[in-house]
Design brief:
Elements lengths: L1 H23 L21 H15 L4 E8 L13 E8 L4 E8 L10 E4 L3 E2 L19 H11 L1 H6 L5 E7 L8 E7 L4 E7 L5 E2 L2
Antiparallel strand pairs: 1-2, 1-6, 2-3, 3-4, 3-5, 6-7, 7-8, 8-9
Length: 208
């Protein structure tokens, strides 16, 4: 009987040792690195948002033409240096005689701000006018941050003399008065502010 008990112990011992070795080398038992927090959303330039809206607008109607691109705001993500948390673009369809307003936002937010591209309902449109012409995207080369930098350099003296004046408008469009698309940039208000145009093709400042 003692001999049999001795054989049983010898038989079980290698199994215990194998189990210990397997457990010690099991990667699942090792500590895993902590997950990295997701990067905070960043404000974007006008053209970055524009091309996302452009794709959605052309899925609506293949002849959709951009008429205006405007900087908007998302609570908690201050606009700065020609970049914004949300942009709005209006596209018109000549064949449908209608237009739609699209937005692009970096996050969801109240009231009614949806992350990514969101489309408004189609509205009747009488077509382009001299002061509201489709933007020639082949000449839409200067992004909002570059346009803002050019405008801020031109307005440096006025901004220094009028501290605290916030940006009142930043939008792109095209009219008969200028051959290329333009960025319209204004600090303050129309009655008490500083406004100018920046050629969206060349980047040159144009005073109104």
């Amino acid at each position: 009987m003692k001999f049999l008990r001795h054989l049983a112990v010898l038989a079980v011992a290698p199994l215990l040792l194998a189990g210990c070795k397997q457990s010690a080398g099991n990667p699942a038992s090792e500590a895993q690195p902590a997950a990295q927090p997701a990067a905070a959303p960043e404000i974007v330039t006008g053209k970055t948002a524009f091309w996302e809206m452009y794709k959605t607008a052309h899925a609506w109607e293949s002849d959709a033409e951009p008429m205006r691109i405007t900087e908007k705001e998302v609570p908690g993500y201050p606009n700065k240096d020609g970049k914004a948390g949300m942009w709005e673009a209006v596209f018109g369809s000549p064949s449908q005689r209608s237009y739609r307003t699209f937005t692009y936002a970096i996050v969801d937010g109240p009231p009614g701000i949806s992350k990514g591209v969101a489309a408004g309902i189609a509205m009747p449109w009488g077509g382009e006018t001299r002061d509201a012409m489709p933007i020639d995207i082949t000449s839409f080369n200067v992004d909002s941050d570059a346009a803002y930098a050019a405008a801020a350099a031109d307005a440096a003296g006025w901004l220094k003399a009028n501290p605290g004046k916030e940006l009142g408008a930043l939008e792109a469009g095209q009219t008969y008065k200028v051959p290329d698309p333009v960025w319209y940039i204004m600090w303050g208000t129309k009655s008490a502010g500083y406004a100018l145009l920046v050629d969206a093709n060349t980047g040159k400042v144009i005073h109104k």
